[in-house]
Amino acid sequence: MRTTLPACIIVGILIGGCNAFTGDFRQEAGGMEGQATVMIDSTLWEGPVGETLRETIGGPIPTLPSREPNFALSPVHYTSQDVMERAQDHRNLLFVGTIGDTTSNESRWLYHRFSEESREAVLNDMPVVLARDDEWRRRQLVYYIVAATEEVLVDAIERYSADIVYAYNLATRQRMYRELFDIGRQRHMEDHLMENHGFAVNVQHDYILATDTTSFVWLRRILSDTWRSLFVYYADSVDPSAITPANILLLRDRLTRQYMEGTQGGFVEVVRSQPVTVDTIDFKGRFGYEIRGLWEMMGEEYGRRFQFGQGGAFLAYAFYDEPSRRLYLIDGMLFAPGYPKREFLRQLEVIAYTFRTSQDVADTITG
């Protein structure tokens, strides 16, 4: 499972408390998704601290066909209060610095940002890794990574970067939800899925229902030069112990070979020669697997296999639903040659997380 940050590091650090009132009329945070603004001293950015940030939070996603970072990092140096105020407008904001030496503007600002008790802990080589929602703007996630020395700061970044990337991804997914469905949803299609299959996902306005069988549903968004798709497969009365990453990949290959034939023949298959990542996750209250990798279109003739040259990225969620005793496999994949893939995949991730069963809906109504 994904780790969580130690509570003693997260809670009770800043001088100010959380915003307690619910009627928040502040402006929404700006900036592009997929980017993180880093407030950091220029010396730190150009040294081991900056290198570690670029390798971790800004490091490449291994399961994409071209080099794309988890988050594109934009360093900002505190040269004036105006610069600080402009930085505070951004949706993904990261403050990184040391307070053992307060000679830079950034370190002095961070020093006064924390309570005396917290400063003492930091100076005793206990780094602070702190997340704050809506610090200056609505729909904003701010992280602080603060230590006494550069060496301790590098260690803290290496130790907690995966958790920070996960948190930024989660915040991004929550913000993208509204953006994806602002134009509209095909609620009649969602009702059809619920009535005929016992589950539903949100369906964007321009998706079509390409395949609808007893236990396999395929939604597609086809444009002139790209396409995105999401399929959901389920099987009843499955032994939960049989749900393993290896079996999921075999199942995916079987389903795509059966239902996803290319325009020139061929079939979709997972690329085993490239990285495939597997994480155990909590998928909306269910233990599950998140699998990411690449797919390719393969052909077979007279016992000889060959590549068609078409491929892309995919993400899959597999889990066991206890009330229905069903295995579910939710899979998003895309074909977007010449385009960045990261944000397209995040859109499919948002759709996947709108999944709900008829029991989920009933529990929400009675709850």
List descriptors.
367 residues; alpha+beta; eight-stranded antiparallel sheet; five-stranded mixed sheet; 15 strands
Tell me briefly what this model is.
With 367 residues, this protein is of the alpha+beta class. It has helices at 7-10, 42-45, 48-55, 81-87, 105-113, 116-123, 150-181, 187-197, 245-259, 342-352, 358-366, and strands at 35-39, 72-76, 92-98, 128-133, 141-147, 199-200, 208-212, 216-222, 227-236, 267-270, 277-283, 286-301, 304-321, 326-335, 356-357.
What would you say this structure looks like, in words?
The protein is 32% helix and 30% strand. The protein has helices at residues 7-10, 42-45, 48-55, 81-87, 105-113, 116-123, 150-181, 187-197, 245-259, 342-352, 358-366; strands at 35-39, 72-76, 92-98, 128-133, 141-147, 199-200, 208-212, 216-222, 227-236, 267-270, 277-283, 286-301, 304-321, 326-335, 356-357. Strand 12 (286-301) and strand 13 form a beta hairpin. Helix 7 (150-181) packs across helix 10 (342-352).
